[in-house]
Amino acid sequence: MNGRTPGPWLVTGAGGMLGREVIAELGRAGLPAAGTDRHELDVTDPERVRTAFRAYRPAVVVNCAGWTAVDAAEEQEAAAHAVNGRGPELLAEECRRSGAVLLQLSTDYVFDGRGSSPYAEDAPVAPRSAYGRTKLAGEAAVLHGLPETGYVIRTAWLYGAGGPNFVHSIIRAERSRATVDIVDDQCGQPTWARDLAAHLVLLGGAARRGGAPAGIYHGTGGGDTTWYEFGRQIFAALGADPARVRPTSSEWLAWRAPRPAYSVLGHDRWRLAGMAPLRSWRTAFRAAFDEVRRAVT
């Protein structure tokens, strides 16, 4: 594993946007950690997972590895399930053997998206896409395999400097197009990857101390908005005219996988862990924007 020193935290998918933020947050907290990308640790390979646990001896595992190509999953559900379903199952098995805590990242796509008030952590799940089904399989594997040390953190509308993400796309579009059409019939919660990473580190620490109940948490920014309104906010932050952003309907877009119309998640369980939920998405966006803009080339 590239000669890295074993540490109490292991972050899979560390080459991705969220994984990099988790590694950085652990560094700021002075916590020893190791990060692996898919070339170093294929979470679908039982032997490589076992080897990683022997090498790193983790006390906390943050699984940021995942199949995130939502539309491609419709045609490659078995491949997506291997990463999103079987991978968490293998990690949970090793965590059970070693006594490690597992933080498993999941998604709003486990819900049907037809709600009108924030989905509670225990709200009924009904995924409408292959991506949602595979992520739900990963949730079930962790919650069943680690009833006392397994944590599922659902997130949505994630953005950050690491990209690719919606904010990057809109910044590039503003530079190259006179107008930009964005759907106004999907409601959700923009979430800065750094804010989520900070909460993951706090949750993992609380879990190790026995101060956070195992189970499901929702890691999204507070409040809600539409993709259209979020796009207007990005234009305004750039000093561009938000009127250049035009509303459109999801039905005009040729997505293979259905998108949730309503992705607003409730955050009550954080208080059981003695923690506040993530801050308002608007406050986070103001804090994040300059750094995210500088990262767009």
UniProtKB/TrEMBL annotation:
GO molecular function: dTDP-4-dehydrorhamnose reductase activity
Enzyme Commission no: 1.1.1.133
Record GO biological process: dTDP-rhamnose biosynthetic process
GO CC terms in record: cytosol
Domain RmlD-like substrate binding: 10-293
Transmembrane segments: none
Top-level lineage group: Bacteria
Pathway, per record: Carbohydrate biosynthesis; dTDP-L-rhamnose biosynthesis
Class of this enzyme: oxidoreductase
Keyword tags: NADP, Oxidoreductase
Biological role: Catalyzes the reduction of dTDP-6-deoxy-L-lyxo-4-hexulose to yield dTDP-L-rhamnose.
PANTHER family, sorted: DTDP-4-DEHYDRORHAMNOSE REDUCTASE (PTHR10491), METHIONINE ADENOSYLTRANSFERASE 2 SUBUNIT BETA (PTHR10491:SF4)
Family (UniProt): Belongs to the dTDP-4-dehydrorhamnose reductase family.
Name listed for the protein in its UniProt record: dTDP-4-dehydrorhamnose reductase
UniProt organism field: Salinispora arenicola
